[in-house]
Input
Amino acid sequence: MASADLRYELTCSICLNIYRDPVTLPCGHSFCRLCIAGVLNAQEEYGAYTCPECRAESQERPALEKNRKLGNIAQTFQSLFRGHRVSVTAVQSCLLCEASLCQKHLKVLEYYCCEDAACICVSCSLAGEHRGHQVETLNEASEKKKEKVRNILQKLTSQREEAEKSVQNLEELRRQVQEKAAGVTGHVSALIKDIRERLEALEKRVLSEISRQEEQVSLRVSDLIRQLEIKKEELTRKMGDIEDLCDMTDPLTVLQEKESDRDDYYMVLGVNTASDMLLGVNTASDMVLGVNTASDMVLNVNTAGNHVSVSGDLKTLSWTEVNQNRPETPERFQSNQVLSIRCVTSGKHYWVVEGSELGRWSVGMASVTISRKGRQSHIGNNNKSWGLWVRWHNNQYSVKHDRRTVRLPHVISCQRLGIYLDYEAGRLSFYELCDPIKHIHTFTAAFTEPLYFGLGLGYRSLRSNKSVSVVENGWVRIVNCI
Output
């Protein structure tokens, strides 16, 4: 082992043999005279000289100083071990070490060519195909590559962390979506359940009202039939008397016969009353055909007058003495009323409204071309709108269209009303949603323009001592139910 170490120290790094006539460069490294002379001769045309070991540079050809002591040691070593094969560590013989030798020169790979990205030996760098290329020691090149790889590793680590963070964010998003979907599902299920219950309740009320009115009409018709049967028998008897009178030949007898009262031959029947009752049965059944709910209809603030206030949910209209000073637009009313945002151009629709027991309020429908200024813009004060007014101060309903007001005989019995519109049939009906449901009035018209749902407010001034004025303020709102 000691001889192998000594042999390594006495080996020229250029020819890889024991030194022959060793010389030393100014940097302190030693080589065979012929070996280093060949290297320096090859470098001469480049005008710069470098040590094959440490790459120390000089502009002038370095002086070669003979190293006698090293030469003596080399000669002694050769004489002692001449004819004997010295056991040397596997520098050239093992397969692993051969992988680190230059295949062309069989010298140790000590440098790295940056231009060709190849590991090279001294001969490749000084006199081979890599001569003049930028080279680095293997350690330097290795450290640079390690630094580059570390930077890549750092970037990859950062990207992996970002990917992990993105995965966590997506997992959180999925959880939130699942929670939101579950919440929406529960809300929709509860809403559908509530709508179903309301529909069932409405169906029971409407069917009950139809049955009640059917019974009333049936009783009335049965009574009329009984009266007609009695009258028919009486008429048959009187017709027989008249026929007998016509068959008499004695003029004196004919003239002396008492003339029957003409009223006996006529009878006024309550047909109109029966017809009205039948109308109530028909219109009440229509309420179950509505396809729109109150939640589909909200108020348009841009049409509201300046002395009415619209709630934040766009469902309630109320009176205010404070002028709202809203901007003037072509669609804004001067009067105390408001129209809906959506219009109706076809189909069957049903809404429910609820109003205060104070003041006056109205509901109805208006065409898109209704006037927005002056008294003629009030719902019902023109041929473009149809309205029902509720007057709690005198407990009375009235309907209005084309400036004609008709006071109805109905007495107000509840605050909630149903409005039913059949656009194609040209029917607009109003109902009291009490128990039982009562038909108030039905407008008939040929609707040709888009219709908007409308709410209006009025007020009544109560004066005392000719100086005090009390205003009864009212409100009306769309109810979120079917």
User: Anything to note?
Assistant: The helical segments are 2-9, 33-43, 68-80, 95-98, 122-126, 138-247, 251-256, 271-286. The chain has three domains: 2-140, 201-289, 290-478. The chain is about 35% helix and 25% strand. Residues 138-247 form the longest helix (110 residues).
